[in-house]
Amino acid sequence: MGSASQPMLVIKANRALLKKRKFKDIKDLLLENSGKTELEFKQVSAKEMAIIKADIRKKAKKAYELEIITYFICTFIVLSFFYWLIYF
Predict the structure, then answer these.
(1) How many CA atoms lie within 13 A of 85 on its CB side?
(2) Domain spans in the chain, listed from the N-terminal domain onward
(3) pLDDT tens, residue by residue, 42-86
(4) Which residues contact 14 (CB under 8 A, 6 or more apart)?
(5) CA 9 to chain CA mean position, Å
(6) How far apart are alpha carbons 86 and 29 in whole angstroms?
(7) d(Cα 50, Cα 33) in Å, to the nearest integer?
(8) Fewest CB atoms less than 10 Å from the CB: which of 17, 38, 51, 70?
(9) pTM exceeding 0.70
């Protein structure tokens, strides 16, 4: 079991580690040694790109139709509930 003073010991140890670092090392680490990361994308032919676009469009159309159907079903349920509420 840990004691109540254990977090204080950890904080003191962290401070001691920070004091050992020199400003020059930190500046070097942040400015000079951290190069830019460049992304490299996979090259795709025009034919494959057309297939991918068609697939994405087909999925988007299917998702749109599903969303519209869901709206109609929810509207029907709400209207049915109001009808039931008023007439029963």
Answers:
(1) 6
(2) 7-31+44-87
(3) 899 999 999 999 999 999 999 999 999 999 999 999 999 999 999
(4) none
(5) 36
(6) 72
(7) 41
(8) 38
(9) no
